[in-house]
Design a protein that fits this description.
It contains eleven helices and 22 strands. It has helices at about 5-20, 25-30, 40-45, 55-60, 100-110, 125-135, 150-160, 170-185, 200-215, 320-330, 360-375; strands at about 50, 75-85, 85-90, 115-120, 140-145, 165, 190-195, 215-220, 220-225, 225-230, 240, 245-250, 265-270, 280-290, 295-300, 305, 310-315, 315-320, 335-345, 345-355, 380-385, 400. Strands 1, 9, 10, 11, 12, 13, 14, 15 and 16 form a nine-stranded mixed beta sheet that branches. A five-stranded parallel beta sheet has the order 5-4-6-7-8, with helices on both faces. The chain has a four-stranded mixed beta sheet with strand order 21-20-19-22, covered by helices on one side. It is globular, with a radius of gyration of 22 Å. The two termini are about 40 Å apart.
Length: about 400
């Protein structure tokens, strides 16, 4: 692992060069009177205000696709990912480890003898490809399952000898139950599950999954903007921070670091400055379980929730802006509000809309569902037409009523 002085030396060098290539980064530095050459400590780094995901989204709308933050030549791009918002994230050529996600597979002991079923999406979002790259990096064989097709994927698990599965917690349980129901308990040979995180009693749910299905469960904290930030290493609670990331737990208003053990926003600086996310606010909240004397977080707790305006629904963050864009897209509705709840352990999202009196109600419902799915890339569970007085002009766009 690099020494503290070496990390900050690299940071100063990389971000001075990045500012010369990325006009939005240079503007960000100048407006804060921040000189990247002088970065020598967490205290000096913290003089730069936090960049929020919402600010990045707005900058990208003003200057698409990357908002002036790309510090690399266009021909160096291997992929462009599209996350809900939409937010565009570049992936440069040469990455072969899932942007650090291979560390999770190594910690779990996954290697050349394993067959990994990867059920994360391979379309637009990075999850599917990042998990594949990471599994390939440790020598495992990968089956690119993607989402859905539960019956077929259950058959694949049995007939190809799958030993590890990458999936959301809910889909993993559905697959396991399908295998056992269709082929019998002896057909279930999976030993490792790499699961997507959830709020609430997720750790207790994992313990139940481990006992019921005889697997070990593993998780990492990663975002589309940053790649892998921290991962479980089996040596302590929470997630150990990847050595190429500088993590702080900060007050979401002031941006100042909070003491270890207090909840705050996860703020990340990456040493991969071609996509210069320096002091990037993830919108997720957690606690520092272990940190250096200068305030760099070494081990971070499980997520405590969101500090921003987005709400996580079935592994996808939904922003209030998505509600606004539905209203803009459909001329027959004037206002809308999203309500997120949880029923029988499943996240649900419904939209209440105010529509013109003479519109076709069935057509409106279908149009709203299509428009919302296009913007947020997640299906609505219900559309309700409500009276004008039910949604005042200042009504909150997105309400989280999950327990």
């Amino acid at each position: 692992m690099d020494s503290v002085s070496d990390i900050f030396r690299q940071l100063a060098e990389k971000y001075e060069k990045a500012a010369a290539l990325a006009p939005a980064l240079e503007k960000r530095f100048k407006s804060a009177e921040f000189n990247p050459r002088e970065i020598g400590s967490i205290e000096q780094l913290s003089q730069l205000p936090v960049l929020t995901k919402e600010e990045l989204l707005n900058l990208q709308r003003q200057d698409p696709p990357f908002g002036g933050f790309l510090a690399a030549k266009p021909e160096e791009l291997a992929r462009i990912y599209v996350s809900p918002g939409p937010i565009f994230e570049p992936s440069l050529r040469g990455n072969k480890d899932g942007h650090g996600l291979d560390s999770l597979f190594r910690a779990a002991g996954t290697g050349p003898s394993d067959v990994v079923l990867n059920t994360w999406s391979y379309h637009l979002v990075p999850a599917g490809l990042l998990f594949e790259e990471a599994a390939q990096a440790v020598g495992a064989t990968v089956i690119p399952g993607g989402v859905g097709n539960r019956e077929l994927q259950a058959q694949i698990i049995v007939e190809t000898g799958v030993t590890a599965i990458c999936a959301s917690t809910a889909f993993f349980v559905a697959l396991a139950d399908t295998v056992i129901e269709k082929f019998g308990k002896d057909a279930w040979k999976v030993k490792t599950a790499f699961l997507g995180g959830e709020m609430g009693d997720w750790m207790a749910k994992r313990r139940r999954i481990e006992e019921k299905y005889n697997v070990s469960t593993w998780a990492a904290y990663a975002t589309a903007d940053l790649g892998m930030v921290a991962y479980e290493d089996g040596k302590g609670d929470g997630y150990i921070v990847h050595p190429r990331r500088i993590v702080q737990i900060c007050d979401p208003v002031s941006g100042a670091s909070v003491p270890a053990g207090e909840t705050g926003e996860i703020v990340v600086t990456t040493l991969d400055a071609a996509w210069p996310m320096i002091r990037f606010g993830t919108g997720d909240s957690a606690k520092a379980l272990e940190q250096t004397s200068d305030g760099r977080v070494i081990r971070v707790s499980a997520l405590q929730g969101r500090v921003g305006s987005a709400v996580k629904v079935r592994e996808i963050f939904v922003y209030p802006r998505a509600i606004e864009e539905v209203v803009i897209a459909i001329s027959d509705i004037t206002r809308a509000r999203g309500i997120v709840t949880q029923e029988n352990g499943r996240d649900t999202i419904a939209l209440q809309v105010v529509a013109s009196p003479d519109c076709n109600h069935q057509t409106i419902e279908d149009d709203v569902k299509q428009a919302f799915e296009k913007v947020a890339r997640i299906r609505l569970d219900k559309v309700s037409l409500v009276e004008d007085q039910a949604l005042p002009d200042d009504a909150e766009l997105l309400i989280n009523r999950k327990d």
